[in-house]
# Entry
Amino acid sequence: MNIKKLLFKSTEINGIVLRGWITANRGNTKIRFIDINDGSTITSLQLVIKSTVSNFSDIEKWRIGSSIFVSGNLLKSKSQGQEFECDVLDVQLLSLSDDDFPIQKQEISFETLRDNFHTRHRTNILRSVMLIRSTLSKEIHNFFDKEDFLYMNSPIITSNDGEGAGEAFIVDSEADKNFFLKKATLSVTGQLHAESYAIGFKKVYTFGPTFRAEKSNTKKHAAEFWMVEPEVAFFELQNIIKLADDMLKTVIKNTISKHSAEFEFLDNKSENKLLKNLWQYLDNPLKIIDYKEAIKILEKATIVFENSEIKFGIDLSTEHERYLSENHFKGPVAVINYPKDFKAFYMHLNGDKKTVAAFDLLVPGIGELIGGSQREVRIEILNSRMRELGIDVEDLKWYLDLRRFGDSGSSGFGLGFERLIMYVTGIENIRDVIPFPRTVGNLKM
Amino acid sequence: MNIKKLLFKSTEINGIVLRGWITANRGNTKIRFIDINDGSTITSLQLVIKSTVSNFSDIEKWRIGSSIFVSGNLLKSKSQGQEFECDVLDVQLLSLSDDDFPIQKQEISFETLRDNFHTRHRTNILRSVMLIRSTLSKEIHNFFDKEDFLYMNSPIITSNDGEGAGEAFIVDSEADKNFFLKKATLSVTGQLHAESYAIGFKKVYTFGPTFRAEKSNTKKHAAEFWMVEPEVAFFELQNIIKLADDMLKTVIKNTISKHSAEFEFLDNKSENKLLKNLWQYLDNPLKIIDYKEAIKILEKATIVFENSEIKFGIDLSTEHERYLSENHFKGPVAVINYPKDFKAFYMHLNGDKKTVAAFDLLVPGIGELIGGSQREVRIEILNSRMRELGIDVEDLKWYLDLRRFGDSGSSGFGLGFERLIMYVTGIENIRDVIPFPRTVGNLKM
# Structure
């Protein structure tokens, strides 16, 4: 039994037994109050320890972070601040924390916490984020399971860099150079491999780490992050947008319902904007607009953009994406039918020959959360797009082969998992939603 | 609706609609029989097409692998070989497969299939394996969710190689050499990072890819494979062995119950040994023996081992492990208390100062499926073990710090996920249970 489940029962229980860590220790010579946390929730349970327990005089020396064992009775609390407390029968120190334990009562800045990846999850803020991260993961798996998707693992080490973006990390064995007898890179997407499995399994998804050797040191870029990439045969653009919207709404709703204490804490931090904004999305149909319409909106914007040239053909930058979702639509919006010129070769070319059947789902605070498309099924168009972009056709022969073997089209998207966590928790820096983040010049622990 | 769910209802249904791929096409000028598979199960649905459908004369040209759309009524079958069949009202070709589609009716060797990672999942054997792989994954997540574990992602790119085995891949950016300003390797284990999260969250697990630059070209080694690594604070050796046993039994039982068609197929392939052996494990308590007892059993074995020197102190090789599980115990067995000399530095040193509180769970056909241990909580012993093994203490200072901050011990294990799939499916080569396997000298697609 853990603290979350004990408190969820909302009833007095005799004979509870817990192990956990001290988050507060105060009192006097007659009574001591220890807060114990076991990681099941951010809520700590208050232990009330009377001077009749045999080791009472030792207890004041037990520092924050120490692990303890306790047995007692869960009773309605007579004091303010909590509904229940534990009347202690026996409490034992298991391991005393040294006095340089970095997590103490006072609030610590995110920057300082980033020097302590190995202990920062023992603060309320990181504890909330990591509990929610875990539940978001599980809810994503649950969603796809209920929708009869096959979970597949695209390879991490690949011989092609997927989108030809040239931002892939190189991999080799130190002892046996040229281990794979060819250039090996870390995957930037599992999509192409997932497409091959969609032809045969119909509905598949990947959920695994992806890598970008990007030098940009922004709040939303990391060298290593997790991606969710569903791919569905027989789906067209509107079907895959609906899937993205359904998935997001289901996953976010279920996660909120499982973490009332954590969301209360995060909502307070955000001055009660977080949950209001999330429910604004959850309770309303997703807006879908054409790229051309997005350009018109941006042209009319009174705000001055850093990238100030707004016309058909430009790639939207984060400031544009955020303007559209935060300022204009005041919520998530899907932009569709982007100009082909800055989009990947595998996207379905629309009848106008200028745009592709792609979508980006933009959310406030983040910009692009999801990017997806209907895939180009016509092999001759794929071939010419690859030539245009200088992608080695021979290298991707296996991928082109799919079109010859019963492929009547598929669609898919990529969700940056950490961006989802940021959107759902309101945390602004990607470094604070990954247990041990990796960015350019930073490889701690 | 998919074929698996339609057939599961075991009742006649009017007005079904399906999209999928042709796995067989036979008949004459009056009637045609097409088998359609949609990837939900290995079972294909027989379509009965009478000459009254308008495009009847085209249908004989539809090759295996082509995608089609069909509508009709699901009726009790009058012929042998299937319980239900689909009486077709309308059938349309969506995409014709070229005639060099490698997957045809006749059985293809595993070796040949390995030239076709992108299409081999469209055979019954690989389709079974990948459906089971997906369900095993989901059942592992479900098991830990029910047991209140936090799912955490240990980093893939690390600056230490965990066990000091020296088999790590090196990572760097091609464009910006020394991207991380220090040597970066691909993770060989997520354990050390998981340990830090167990102190605070109590019960955590990782499930992600790990990497070994091993040159050994065996049936059970791959350069890239997935590992499940739970870590539980306050657990000792016997607790973590019980967790491993409970997890395996729950996950395997649930997977069998969800894949009757796939297990029937695999069981036939194994001459009905597969399910008998799995149930032998599922229905009996796990045997646990001391390493010393294992040595005695091996000494008495009449079989001649390649590694023929059997005495206290040797590391068990696969032939020894398989002898113990296959020949002697005829089922899984956990061996505990190994000599410290060939085990990792972080394992709890037993009172005899010679052995560590570690276990390996050995299974027939594979050898080691799981390896785990109680972790050493005494910082001075950790320090001296690291010095003995030449591991840089400064590099793992953060890990040693955990012991000073309320760590009263934890235990964990690592499950090689692909070995679990091999054990559960009876497939003998790890290359056939990974969608796109990576081994020394091999990086296809």
The first strand of chain A starts at residue 13 and ends at 27. The radius of gyration of chain A is 26 Å. Chain A touches chain B through 102 residues (CB under 8 Å).
